[in-house]
Amino acid sequence: MTERRSRRARKKAHKEAERKRPEYPRINLKSILYCMRIYRRAVGLRRYFFWFYRITTSIVPSITAILAGRVVNEIQRGINTQDFGGFIFFVALLLSVQFLDMILGAIYRMLAISTSQETYIYVSELIATKYIKIPLIMRESREFADKFERVRDFGLSIEYVSTSAITVVSALVGLASVIIATIFVSPAITIIIIIAAIPSSIISLRLAARNRRNWREYTKDRRIAWSIERKITNSDSALEIELNGLSHQFVQQMIKARRRSQEQDINDERAFFWPRFGANIFQDTINYAVLIVVCIEIILGRLEIGAFVSTRTLLNQLTNSISSLFSSITEISSSLVNATDFMEFMETPAQRSGDIEIHDIPTIEFRHVTFTYPHSNVPAIRDVSFTLNPGDSLAIVGENGAGKTTLIKLLIGAYVPDSGEILVNNQPLERINRDSYLAQIGALFQDYSRYDFATLGENVWFGNVEKPYSRKAIIEALEDAGLGDLVGTYKNGLNQILSKDIDSQNATNLSGGQWQRLGIARAFFRSPNILILDEPTSAVDAKSEYDIFRNIIKKQEHKSTIIISHRFSTVRRAEKIIVLDEGKIIEQGTHEELIEHNGVYKEMFELQAEGYT
Ligand code: ADP
Is the pTM of this model over 0.70? Predict the structure, then answer.
């Protein structure tokens, strides 16, 4: 008794929980049409043939069913009348339809060979081209990163959605053709088999909606699983994971997250098992009853013998069309959950650019600039004013989090100030043509890039791909960055691949310091009018840093340089030094002036000097 009650209570609680879950996200036609538009552009004119083929092949089984019935009738008539003309005619017609179907199928397979790859390439290009135009401040946000992951997921399913949509349409046409064909056999049969198919169709639709909702609700768990999988399989984190004994723990966590993401689907499948079973039995029973009635009608002479062949084939075709219709709807619905994110992403406004071109070393002026990161209450930059004239060398010092990198990002136009102005040649930065401005700048950040997919030579050449790939210039840049020996040590010279993840056989891995110098070599190769170095030598020893900076000073003699560094041996050489603290400039001047001033700079300088004695 108590057990029954508790089971009932559990059921009630489950129902209540189900009710509280959000509504099923609807399949939205706009997203499907959007996917189809992209697919259309990717596959070009072939789409017309694809449509033609899918629609024709969905009608062929119904035509075949009717023709097969006619062939059987004509045989019987031939046996009775010795006139086989009708039989020959219908056999010829049947074979022609089959032959046409076969030819169309062969053409389809030939044309469809590379469409998946082509759509994939087209969509990747679309996403990447859009991504690089989106303002950096937006790309840096966590929400955007989450959204972008969904966008990429969705990109992969665009072809799927489109082909499934074609399948839905062709299944509907197939279904209509079955219905029309059964009317030829007997209109009563048509009505009965439609009624028989209703319960199972409703159940399939409800299950599809549940799957769609589950897919959306468990996005977080799927992402956790993917993220752990990437960490486990990425060689960058492998060593740390192994040393900390985390491998087993991570595998377990990944499996748990994956299970969680599947659990609800399995529960729903279970919940729908009996209703679906019942609906299928109902449909099959009625279908067999229809066949029996057809047999009786044939015996009674009210239907010709071919009606049996036609009805049987049409019933099969009906079941196939319905199941392909609902499986395609399910596929579409689970693939479409991220469609809105994709469409929003594609509509994100691009980084703005003005029309004033910059062709030479510009003067850059900050006037009372204040900037606050989104979701932060405290400004990262407060009321900052300074001028960088052509040929100046400027050093920025300050503790971690003082705002140095933020200042650089404002200067390159990646962020827009909340208040104050950034002027380039006395014009507001928004009015300057972005590409021409960035063409003057070369920057190397703390978290410098490792282009591990590329060769040693390309890693330097990427500093300026507008310049020709010159062996001589590349080797010179490597030498200036203290990597002159590297070329000789590799069998492949400049063509050496630098990551074992990319080419496990022939690649060599570089140390952190070597990668950093490679970044510096890239900056040397670019030889920009304004060189920005944000702690570029943190992984390089003091002696190498000294040599590298000597080279930088030589190369940048008449150009502008901005250096962020913690090493005062480097900082003191700058013509102008800015001391930042909590986003504010607290001191500025030359090294001598600041020492004279006897403030924070002097204190920091002496602290470091002590460290060396
Ligand atoms: P520094 O380069 O001097 O170490 P940053 O310019 O990187 O300092 O950071 C300045 C302040 O802005 C810090 O408090 C930091 O936590 C915050 N900050 C940096 N980047 C972001 C970001 N993308 N979103 C929110 N806050 C940030």
Answer: no
